[in-house]
UniProtKB/TrEMBL annotation:
GO BP terms: DNA transposition
Classification lineage: Bacteria, Bacillati, Actinomycetota, Actinomycetes, Micromonosporales
Keyword Ligase part of the UniProt annotation: no
Key words of the record: Coiled coil
Origin: domain of life: Bacteria
Bias (Polar residues) ranges: 1-10
Listed PANTHER family: PROTEIN DISTAL ANTENNA
Molecular function via GO: DNA binding; transposase activity
Annotated region (Disordered), positions in chain: 1-23
Coiled-coil annotated spans: 76-103
Name of this protein: Transposase
Keyword Nucleotide-binding (UniProt): no
Length: 112
């Protein structure tokens, strides 16, 4: 086997193919979080056992802790939902104000 072939095998081993994005039910996430919180396996072991990324599992555990109040360094799911709703409402109100400003300017010109 030539050295060129060996280096190409080594290169292909080093590059992980990107994972397809998967979605999971709230029930599944809750069960994974429960397994992690039980304490008989590490987050890494649980993520390996279920072919999940360790980062995703850590995020699920963190969010569950925020939601139950055992942790306070972020927003709960309810707070995130409220924030998203307030941002949408804020954007809509800014658009309404912009439309009203243009309409006011238009009518001001018309009535001169």
């Amino acid at each position: 086997m030539g050295s060129g072939r060996m280096s190409s095998i080594m290169e292909s081993m080093g590059k992980k193919r990107p994972r397809p994005r998967r979605s999971f039910t709230a029930q599944f996430k809750a069960e994974i979080v429960e397994l992690c919180q039980r304490g008989d396996r590490t987050i890494r072991q649980v993520s390996d056992d279920f072919d999940l990324t360790e980062t995703a599992v850590r995020d699920w555990v963190k969010q569950a802790e925020l939601d139950t109040g055992t942790r306070s360094d972020g927003l709960s799911s309810d707070e995130k939902a409220e924030l998203a709703q307030l941002r949408r409402e804020n954007r809509r109100l800014r658009e309404d104000v912009d439309i009203l400003k243009r309409a006011t300017a238009f009518f001001a010109k018309e009535t001169r």
